[in-house]
Amino acid sequence: MTKNKHKTDVIIIGAGPVGLFAVFELGLLDMKAHLVDILDKVGGQCAELYPEKPIYDIPGFPVITGQDLTDNLMAQIEPFSPIFHLQQMASSLKKLENGNWELSTDFDTIIEAPVIVIAAGGGSFMPKKPNIPRLEEFEGTSVFYSVREMKKFEGKNILVAGGGDSALDWTLNLEPLANSMALVHRRSEFRAAPDSVSKMMKLVNEEKMDFHVGDIKELHGLNGRLNSVTVHPKGADAYRVECDTLLAFYGLTMKLGPIAEFGLNLEQNLIPVDTEKFETSTPQIFSIGDINTYPGKLKLILSGFHEAALMAQQAFRYVYPDKKLRFQYTTSSSSLQQKLGVDDKAA
Q1: pLDDT in tens, 72-103
Q2: What is 174-196 written as a DSSP string?
Q3: Residue 180 and residue 157: Cα distance in Å, rounded?
Q4: Model confidence over 210-240: pLDDT tens digits?
């Protein structure tokens, strides 16, 4: 694959609420940002784990859902045109001779910037892998935990495993492209949106796809190429389901992942920072949000917002070493209001 190379002012690892707000604070100071996140959408835990769960401690909002908070943050940072690299993990980091950092992802994306901001919450979301013999033998060729390019699944005989939104969403999205489509879940009830479940069952009733209630117990195939799986329904005999592709959506777990190999001093898988700049032990690398630690740390979204604001002040000095930083308020600065498009909206 041809490597995608980019150059920017700041690389943010993590596109949760704190990472998104960092785009805003950096943008006010004329710094552009690229964001890398392993999830297929922005919003981090708020959007992935509890999009409809009410949050009560965001200033100015007596109550707001995780998805609404994410949507508001995206609207707020729109004037700064951030670039997102979703469904990608920050896999390696190295210092260049020119003083910048070069970040590589597991999707062959390379980004260069003078500043790195780690806003990865509790770490990277990693797929939960089922306890099925020979699973690793088929990973990457026939077994997948995410969909990065739908076109790669065109004409495949797909079996989707899981009962959450990701499983149902990809079943519906890929069914028109697949040669055959089936869904397997350990029970007939789902954790997904009712509308998605209804659409899936409609396809089943129209005989456009199959639905199996049970657990996958065995994988069958040679040289990493799947040809069928064994499904074991509760209280019934096991049987085989033919497929050449298994999309396993068993949920996500949090792990520090490759960030642990970035050469930072860690304390119990957290990144120590100072409370003046929220810089790590390595100059030009910052950490904000739940992944950092310092005396008195509170794991709150509003704390992460505060940390993002102070981080941006020091990041400016690395990105623009020859410029003087002038603090301004958005309420009174016409230049900041112009960046935000306030003048245009008022007109």
Answers
A1: 999 999 999 999 999 898 989 999 999 999 99
A2: HTTT-SEEEEEESSS--SS-HHH
A3: 5
A4: 999 999 999 999 999 999 999 999 889 999 9
List the CATH code of the domain at 129-250. 3.50.50.60
Query: CB–CB of 243/159 below 8 Å?
Result: yes
- Judge if pTM exceeds 0.85: no
Closest CA relative to residue 135, chosen from 126, 144, 125, 147: 144
Mean pLDDT of the chain: 91
Q: What are the tokens at 288?
A: 């904000």
Cα 33 from Cα 8, distance rounded (Å):
6
How many beta carbons lie within 10 A of that of residue 98, not counting itself? 8
Q: Do domains 4-125+253-346 and 129-250 have the same CATH topology?
A: yes
- Closest of 141, 38, 114 to residue 285, by C-alpha: 114
Closest CA to 22 of 311, 291, 335: 311
Burial class (CB in 10 A: 0-12, 13-18, 19+), 22: buried
Q: For the chain, how are helix, strand and coil distributed in percent, rounded to 5?
A: 30, 30, 40
Token code pair at residue 274: 């100072």
Which uninterrupted H or E stretch holds 115?
strand 115-118
CA distances from 150 to 123, 156, 173, 174 (A): 27, 11, 8, 7
CATH for the stretch 4-125+253-346? 3.50.50.60
